[in-house]
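Progress against Task 2.4 (sequence-to-structure conversion) is shown through the following example record, which the project officer requested during the mid-term review.
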Amino acid sequence: MGDDELVAEARRGNARAFGRLVELHQPRLYGMLAKMTGDSELALDLSQEAFIRAWQGLEGFEGRATFSTWLYRIAVRLAYDARRDPRHDDPDALAGIADPAPGPDAHLDRSAEAEDLRRRIETLPDMQRAVVTLRTYNDLPYREIATILETSENSARVSFHHAIMRLKEGYLRDGRRQEAPTR
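Structure tokens generated for the chain above:
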């Protein structure tokens, strides 16, 4: 059964159908939220809250966008709100999520690089951070990103471009600082 059929069943009160939607979308939604917030516990809480809100708002879901797009929109708004909440200002709440590597040294290097990138992405403005996360980590097309973020496709592209330029500038600035001789 696809999302459309599951949504129709869930609207008729079939909690199992909605449970299947949760099973299908939880891993990617959680991953996106973990990248956006930098906090695995917060990402889990937000993903659960997104599904609760989706369940509660299912009757209002008009189907103009796909279920996953609508769900991501809910989750991104929750992430924006959480970032503005002073209780979530701990920058060391979570080490970066790194892929498994063949050896322990490679794993440490990749973990450090992933953590550095995660911290840099966290410094981006909300829109840029959301676009980079959705595009890079979730491999979503700009059209869907625009729908999720309720902006134009061109604006999503421009935000991505500005975010990448900011990240590059940061790496270049830090690289120059490391190469500068110390006296």
